[in-house]
Amino acid sequence: MLPEYGRPVNDLLAELTALKAADLPVRGGTVTAYVYDTGRPEVHDAAHRAYAEMLEVNMLDPTAFPSMVALERQVVAAAAELLGRPGAPGIFTSGGTESIMLAVKAARDARPGATRVVLPVTAHPAFHKAAHYLGMEIVPVPVDPVTFRASVPAVEAAVDHRTALVVASAPSYPQGVVDPVEEIAAIAASRGVLCHVDACVGGWLLPWLREAGAAVPPFDLSVPGVTSISCDLHKYGYAPKGASVLLFRDAGLRRRAYFASAAWPGYTIINATVQSSRSAGPLAGAWATLQSLGREGYRELGRSTLEATRRLAEGIRAIPGLRVLGEPETSLVAVAGSPEVDVFVLADEARRLGWFLQPQLSYAGIPANLHITVTGVTLSGVDAMLDVIARSAEAARAKGPAAVPDGLPELIASLDLDALDDATFAQLAASVGIDLGPSPVGDAGPGDRGVDGTNGTGSGDGGGMAAVNAVLDALPAETREAILVRFLSVMYA
């Protein structure tokens, strides 16, 4: 509500503090998704100050604000040097999704008439989003059931004259493994097709892991046939959100990502990104973070992240009823359960102990699992995390799997969700254990409210999402999507 008269700044900040009381903590390493922590407060402080300094600079017109051009050149150059092609042209974007959107647009415009994007089933949904927005078609290919890397023969069989872009991940988010980029890029090049590497997670980490001794396969612009690569700086660059870089092999392809319009009598329209007006704050925050850490800072973070990932994977393998999916090549660990240990119940138990582990639903033969993102601060708390996982696994074993009422998934799948208004849908959600009603500020505990299996109520025993996730897991992907859209609508109603 808009107040009749302006409020003092101290009141506003106090309200923000109260509103944030129910949020997951962004520092300390107990939240294993969404946030990235160096464990170095001075680095984050430098980024925040730089962000605020450039907050009101508008990146719409580079001729009006040359400071942002200078900063973007430096940030893009740093990414290009790290990712195998010094001097490669690029674009600073708001995040991985926007980088991917622009990569798909560039491919579409570079190959008129080609409308297909070939990608592994483990590729990020941002490609599906880009295809939906840009009128493209997704052609999914399977991954190896043991390694979870994209099947090279399947990629080769899927690429044809209708293909605009082939995608590989470095790594894929679900299991943290790097697709066979060299083989996939060679297939694309042999067919005259563009190849994009989604290194949004790994682009700013894999080079430092390699320096720390990890066996990192070739994945960047140094690989023949790779024509573009995306790299998020607000992940393992540790910059404030949103900050990503999209690099191209040549300037001609970068120009395909741009948009210009002269079909109106107003100011000149030329955009490098999906957005038009946008703050230079994220760019300055990214620049300051890179400058504050420097190469040695990132080397040290790479070394600690690699050690923490190895210790975490080894520790999880020693816990009865749990297993690590694949061999994590970066800092992402996927933990599957067993008939005795339900990972959704385990996640709820960990949440009660103050730790957030991200549930991932089953898909394309890959079992439901828990995702853990290891960051620079994880090493100091890896033993505590393993203790929480072990205790939570034992509690999950004692409780048994989350119960799904007989016939409920079939009933939900048969519903015409578009025929239900938000209030009716909220009642339906409550019947399967999730309360979408408002929570009092500051009164939300570790299990309160959620949309996608992250932090909702509903188990009836102190909060949890196990039953909800179990129901979602039993539904086809299309029905899951429809339900999630309705959840979001109700939460913002």
> What Rg do the Cα atoms give?
23 Å
Helix content range = 40-55%
Tell me the CATH superfamily of the largest domain. Type I PLP-dependent aspartate aminotransferase-like (Major domain)
Shape: globular
CATH class of the largest domain: Alpha Beta
Low-confidence stretches: 439-463
Question: What's the overall average pLDDT, rounded?
Answer: 91
Explain what this protein looks like in three dimensions.
Residues 439-463 have low confidence and may be disordered. It contains 16 helices and 13 strands. It starts with 8 loop residues before the first helix and ends with a helix. It folds into three domains: 47-290, Type I PLP-dependent aspartate aminotransferase-like (Major domain) (Aspartate Aminotransferase, domain 2, 3-Layer(aba) Sandwich); 295-399, Aspartate Aminotransferase, domain 1; 408-491, no CATH class. The protein is α/β, with parallel strands linked by helices and 493 residues long. The strands form three sheets. Strands 1-7-6-5-4-2-3 form a seven-stranded mixed beta sheet, with helices on both faces. The chain has a four-stranded antiparallel beta sheet with strand order 10-11-13-12, covered by helices on one side. The radius of gyration is 23 Å and the shape is globular. β2 (116-120), α5 and β3 (137-141) form a beta-alpha-beta unit. It has helices at residues 9-19, 41-53, 66-82, 96-110, 126-134, 152-158, 181-190, 206-211, 251-257, 281-317, 343-352, 382-399, 408-414, 422-431, 466-473, 477-491; strands at 90-93, 116-120, 137-141, 163-169, 194-198, 228-232, 244-248, 259-261, 269-271, 323-324, 332-336, 358-360, 369-373. Helices cover 41% and strands 12% of the residues.
